[in-house]
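Suppose you are handed only two things: the residues of a chain and a line of SMILES describing S-adenosylmethionine. What would the bound structure be? This form records exactly that question and the answer produced for it, so the two can be stored side by side and reused later without any lookup.

QUESTION INPUTS
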Amino acid sequence: MAISQVLINAVEKLKQEKIPTPRLDAEILLSHILKKSREYIYTYPNYKLSKSIVARYALCVTRRIKGEPIAYITGHKEFYGLNFFVNKNVLVPRPETELMVDEALRAAHNPANALQNGAGAQRITLIDVGTGSGCIIISLAKLLKNKIRNPKSEIRYLATDISKPALAIAKKNAKLHHVDKQINPAPLGQSYNKNNVNDNKKLPQRCGVKFLHGNLLEPFLKLIKKPKFKIQNSKFIILANLPYLTPAQIKNSPSIQCEPKIALNAGHDGLKYYRELFKQIKKLNTLYVMRYALCEIDPRQTVMLKQLIKKILPKAKIQIKKDLSGLNRLAIINIPNSCLSR
Ligand SMILES: C[S@@+](CC[C@H](N)C(=O)[O-])C[C@H]1O[C@@H](n2cnc3c(N)ncnc32)[C@H](O)[C@@H]1O
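ANSWER OUTPUT
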């Protein structure tokens, strides 16, 4: 059967089943099966497909009709211009979450985050809580690796998740984007001499993401107790796109039924995890200079979230950013030391 006919049949089926973007989905799935671009499909409409290709394509269309996201069928999703592996164990990265990467970059570049004695050097710890596919922290590690050139700067990238299968995907993505190694090896032909810190060329840069299994910030709190994990005077940026939907919201959203409930369900008010996260933040020792927590929210939670922050971290300043659809999407919480328990 020719490409054009196979596509017409698929679009018809997807339309009948009320799939919102039938033509686009049919084209993406066919280009996935053919391992060719969508342009190829337009250029060769008369190209005859083998029976086995047509059968494999039909299976993909059936999966889509059953409600599986396109990204699970193709096995990948683009986020911040980068390609990420995804499967049923991780949330499909959403375009609105790119706002968190924009704001984290802004916070990382803020001169207020420079070390006082370091002539523009930065010491920042970025912690992605509930990392899922790793899309947020990996995008940041990849972008900052090239942008922060001062060899005395130190940026640590940490990520936690309660789901071990999700962490396995995040680690695979870190490897794909070459941000899986804790320390960059010394340049070829040169050995790194840690006593010679003035030799910028030989100084190793941290650029790898460290993935930790556990509940929200708990694995991080354990890590910083270890003497070798020296973190004093580092500015913290907590990145959290935690589950924020109620069971009723999940039930009423057919498009998310195949995604892991552990990535979506946040109890009766959708704030179960943010409530716990803010309580954990409050317990952080004041030695660890606190700065920002960036939290993605459901626009309908704005008022409740502000009340929650005022209750748990009363001196925190809150700014709400809108996404490209004009909806409240990101809470930027500036947390002074005076918020933390002593
Ligand atoms: C909404 S998804 C976000 C995934 C990813 N950060 C993104 O933006 O695409 C929430 C993630 O939080 C994780 N999660 C749920 N409960 C958690 C907990 N108590 N501690 C750590 N991670 C948790 C889930 O496994 C899931 O990967």
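WHAT STANDS OUT: Residues 88-339 form a domain with the Rossmann fold fold (CATH 3.40.50.150). The radius of gyration is 23 Å.
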